[in-house]
Structure formats: C-alpha cells, structure tokens
Write a structure and sequence with these properties.
Elements (H helix, E strand, L loop, with lengths): L9 E4 L4 E7 L14 E3 L7 E3 L4 E2 H4 L14 E4 L8 E4 L4 E11 L5 H10 L1 H5 L12 H5 L2 E4 L2 H38 L12 E3 L4 E4 L11 E6 L3 E4 L12 E3 L4 E4 L8 E3 L6 E3 L3 E6 L5 H8 L2 H10 L10 H4 L3 E3 L3 H40 L14 H23 L1
Parallel strand pairs: 3-8, 4-7, 12-17
Antiparallel strand pairs: 1-9, 2-8, 3-5, 6-7, 6-8, 10-19, 11-18, 12-13, 14-17, 15-16, 15-18
Length: 415
C-alpha cells in the first residue's frame, strides 16, 4: 500500500493515531444525562453520514442505566453488528449509542472527518474480516488494526474540503430525484380530485375496471423469463431455488399487473413493461386494466398511503394475511372521467421513463462514482501535494510523543 502513496504519506493502523471505546448508555452519576435531552443512536441507524439530530432519546427508549460513556462531538462511530456492520457516522452533537457501536477518537493532529471518509472507503475490506455468517459482526480489535492512509494535516484538510464539495453535488442529484418522486405523487393525487369541486371524485370499487388473469404456461415454459416483484425495485427476476419444472406458472403479458399476495400492503406490486411474455409463480396475482382506468395512475394509487390503507381494509387472514384478486376488486378508489385518465397515462409513462433512468443512475452509477472518488482521495490523487505540508512521519512522531505524555499523566494520577 505504501509504495503507491505520495512520498510524504505513510500507511498505519488506526490505533497509532486514535483510541477506540465501546458505546452504551450514560453514567448514572451524572443526573443531567437523564433529563430526556441526550440523543441516542444505535447501529441500525448508521448510514455513512454526519449525525446532526438522532430521533430517539434515552428516556423515550426506557433503557436501564449503566456506567458507559457519552460520545462527544466529532467522534467517528462505526457499527459492529447486524445489517449495518461497517457503516460509519460522524457526530455533530454529543450523543449516546448502544454497545454495538464503537467510537473512534482521533488525535488532534488527525482530521476526524478525514477518518470518517476513509472508513467509508474501507468498508468492504473491514467486512471481509467480519465474524459470523447469519449475523456478521466485527470487534474493536479489527477496527484498531485497520490500515489507513496518513498524509500531513494540511493535506487532510484540503482532501476533506474537496470531498465535501463533490459529495455535496452528488447529494443534490439524490435530492432532485426525491423531489421528482414527490411531484409525481402530487400529480397522482391531483388526478383523483375534481378540478371544479376541489374534492375527491366519488369512490368506486376498482374490480369493475379490472380483469383477473389465471392463464398457465403449460409445458412450453423453458424459454420464458421468470419474474417476481419487489417493493423497492419493481419487476425482478424470480428466485426459483431447486425447482425444476414450471408448468403451473402464470403467463404475464406486457402491461399486466403482478403482485405478491402477502406483501402488496408494503408496495410489492408493479406493471410488467417487458416486450416479451414472462411467467410468474402461481402464488402471485396477475391482472390487467380492461377499461377506463389509467394503469399508471392505478399503480400510483395502490402504492400510495391512501391505497395501502384500502388494501389493508380488504386483506383476509390474521396469521398470514393475503390479498387475492377478489379482495383487491373491493378496493375503493376515487374515479374520474376517462379523458383525464388518458392524458394522465401518457404523462406518467413519459415521466416514469425519465425517473427510471435517474433511479438507475442513483442506485448503480453514483455508488461506483463515490467509491472511485474516495479511492483517488486516499491514494493522494484528489488534491495536489504542497512542499509546505511537511511529512506525515514527523506528524506521527508528534502524535506518539503526545500519547506517551498522556500515558505518563495517567500513571502519575494512579500513584
């Protein structure tokens, strides 16, 4: 690693420039920690971001008091277990954490935000050392011994400024996508409202405008794509495990709706937009719009908060609740005139194509771009090195001398 670094950089383990400490609830001896104003984060909330305002407070969670510490501002925190293992945060407020989060406290000669960005770039390397399979976790030793790039402090600061600028621009793109999604949802709602009365159209059961599709593929199944649906991704390739034959699978034609009977209440419903026939599990429901309604508008309604409430009201069963086509037909939706829906369908089709391209950019291209930017940053290729920066080896000696001095003070206090 060091051969690829600029000559005034070095590579070192984290413990050389920082100390680590496990999280937990605040000390019981300090009463002001327990007045309901101390924020609390846990490993499941870490998302590789700066933490300005955790939503939970200790008193809200009803936690038992213990003797752990409160993490100060500028602490870098990293999740040690669960689905977010390796995710990091940078505290912008004094915060408590649970014990599945470790705090990292860099020496004053090492920029906390520089370490924050560097740990994001090293997440895949850290995860390779994770213990366990079903519930992966890392320990404090793995964090301590993670090798990092160590440039002079002025260059650390310049790199952080550059990364803040570049990541800020990428965040702007993500926010614009979210804004467009909001605009789409607002448009869908507006199509359900009578422009003259400013009230929702009369609610009607949607079954009269729909047609159930139960057609099976039979023996001719081998050449067809097998599809399912995800709440986040829409149409996906269906995982079939060890299954060998698919004669009972349902035919899905371009433009058909498909949904998971047990997960439609969380948005697992989509329109199949492929050009060729596909097939899906007999456990899924397949249907199509036969008249009047705009398919895109119907989909938007069924995935909206109002539509999900209607779905919930018509779902049958208690332990494994399912929504079959007969029950879906009883869902009530404000229904206006067909002319409006024809225009809405044209607009939403065009809008959704653009939104899909932007979604692909955000979910596929931007993460790769972020990693490429971070890789350049920690190889010394993002900003120029200046002769006035000094050498990281001299800076490390200063850090070691300071750490030795602090260690001697602790020994004196114990005596």
């Amino acid at each position: 690693m060091e051969e690829r670094l600029p000559k005034n950089w070095i590579s070192i383990p984290i413990f050389k420039i920082a100390r680590t400490s496990s999280g937990g609830t605040p000390r019981t001896t300090v009463s002001e920690y327990w007045n309901g104003k101390i924020p609390w984060i846990n490993s499941g909330k870490l998302k590789d971001t700066e933490i300005h305002s955790p939503s939970k407070f200790i008193t809200e969670l009803g936690l038992k008091k213990s003797s752990a510490k409160l993490f100060p501002i500028s602490t870098v925190v990293i999740a040690l277990t669960g689905a977010t293992t390796g995710k990091v945060g940078l505290l912008e407020i004094e915060t408590s954490t649970n014990q599945s989060v470790t705090g990292i406290f860099p020496n004053k000669n090492y920029n906390s935000k520089f370490l924050f960005y560097q740990l994001i770039s090293l997440r895949s390397i850290i995860l390779k050392q994770a213990l366990g399979t079903a519930q992966p976790h890392i320990n404090k030793k793995i964090v301590d011994e993670t090798i990092i790039s160590f440039p002079p402090l002025p260059e650390q600061q310049r790199i952080v400024q550059k990364l803040d600028k570049l990541f800020g621009e990428l965040d702007t793109i993500k926010k614009r996508y979210n804004n467009l999604t909001t605009i789409k949802n607002t448009f869908i709602t507006s199509c359900l409202i009578n422009s003259e009365t400013k009230k929702f159209y009369n609610r009607q059961t949607i079954g009269k405008y729909l047609e159930d599709s139960t057609e099976r593929i039979g023996d001719d199944w081998a050449k067809y794509r097998k599809i399912g649906v995800s709440a986040k991704k829409g149409i996906i390739d269906l995982s079939v495990g060890q299954k060998k034959t698919f004669e009972k699978y349902k035919i899905v034609r371009p433009g058909d709706f498909i949904y998971n009977t047990m997960r439609v209440n969380i948005g697992s419903i989509a329109i199949y937009k492929g050009e060729e026939i596909a097939i899906t599990s007999p456990d899924y429901v397949v249907f199509r719009v036969k008249s009047h309604l705009s398919p895109e508008l119907l989909l938007g309604f069924l995935k909206s908060e109002q539509g999900i409430l209607e779905i919930g009201a018509n779902t049958k069963g208690s332990v494994r609740a399912r929504l079959y086509f007969k029950s879906l037909s009883q869902v009530r939706m404000p229904v206006g005139n067909a002319e409006v829906y024809e225009k809405a369908e044209l607009f939403l089709k065009s809008f959704n194509k653009g939104l899909k391209r932007l979604e692909y950019l955000i979910n596929s291209k931007i993460p790769k771009l972020e990693q490429a930017i971070l890789a350049k940053a920690f190889k010394g290729e993002l900003v120029p090195q200046l002769p006035t920066d000094g050498d990281a080896r001299d800076l490390l000696k200063e850090i070691e001398a300071l750490q030795e001095k602090l260690a001697q003070k602790k020994k004196t206090k114990k005596k």
